[in-house]
Amino acid sequence: MNSSSVKKVFSDFDGTLTETDGSLSQYFITVLDYLQKKKIPLSIVTGRSLSWGHFFITHFPQVDSVICEGGGVVIYRAGNGVMMEENLVSEDDYLFLEKVAFDLTDSFDCSLSLDSFGRRTDRAIDLYKFKDNQGLKKQIETFLREKGLSFSSSNVHLNFWKGEVSKSTAMKHLLRKKYPNYQIEDCLFFGDAPNDESAFESFPNSVGVSNIQPHLNSIKYRPRVILNGKENEGVKGVLNYLMGEEKAS
């Protein structure tokens, strides 16, 4: 898929639109400006909290929508410019999640991430807490599974939730709601981690930046294109792919 046929770009954030250490760089702004110049709308698709979603859409005018909390909440600008927000998780599932999160912190020596206070439809635990204790991570995953919750890992968090939530489901919802004239085949998705797998499975045009390489053996559905080399890590890979496709077209 070359850039001339792309009508819509979805992209994961951490490790994909950031540097691999999570920092923002000039490359991020260059990607935003490139897509704006091409009149290609960008949706950030992230496991970060709803509060981060508000930040992205209010501070970066080039971003016209945000899917956050792994697909639990969608934020977008309506035709009149008013910011709209939709929860894709039921109230019952939210209340159940609250109870399980409380039980988890009461049962294990492991606190939730600080940004869990800004979350609505999921909760998170910082992965660094498992750096020297992978056994604890497995115990918590077993606990969540027994409670009927789903979970996945990004570059920074173990996220967990109740209900039918995925990045892919939220992306399709956003297409129906805001871009009814676009098909999945018109879209391009960038990602780098196991929590992007639902998008890799459902969207035929997907790109994994090169820092996805360590995760390839742990996912069933891989991106259609997998970039290689340090020069294609994170946001630099996104920019290089977009610019490379433009030169090739």
How is the secondary structure organized here?
Blueprint lengths: L7 E4 L14 H12 L4 E4 L4 H10 L3 E6 L4 E5 L5 E5 L3 H17 L14 E5 L7 H13 L3 E4 L3 E5 L5 H12 L8 E5 L5 H6 L3 E3 L16 E2 L7 H15 L1
Parallel strand pairs: 1-2, 1-9, 2-3, 9-10, 10-11
Antiparallel strand pairs: 3-4, 4-5, 6-8, 7-8
Concise summary:
The chain has 249 residues and is α/β, with parallel strands linked by helices. It is 34% helix and 19% strand.
Structure description:
By secondary structure, this protein is α/β, with parallel strands linked by helices. The chain has 2 domains: 3-87 and 165-248, Rossmann fold; 91-159, no CATH class. It contains 7 helices and 11 strands. The chain has helices at residues 26-37, 50-59, 91-107, 134-146, 167-178, 197-202, 234-248; strands at 8-11, 42-45, 63-68, 73-77, 83-87, 122-126, 150-153, 157-161, 187-191, 206-208, 225-226. The strands form 2 sheets. The chain has an 8-stranded mixed beta sheet with strand order 5-4-3-2-1-9-10-11, sandwiched between helices. Strands 6-8-7 form a 3-stranded antiparallel beta sheet. β2, α2 and β3 form a beta-alpha-beta unit. α1 (26-37) runs parallel beside α7 (234-248). The radius of gyration is 18 Å and the shape is globular. The model has no long low-confidence stretch (mean pLDDT 92).
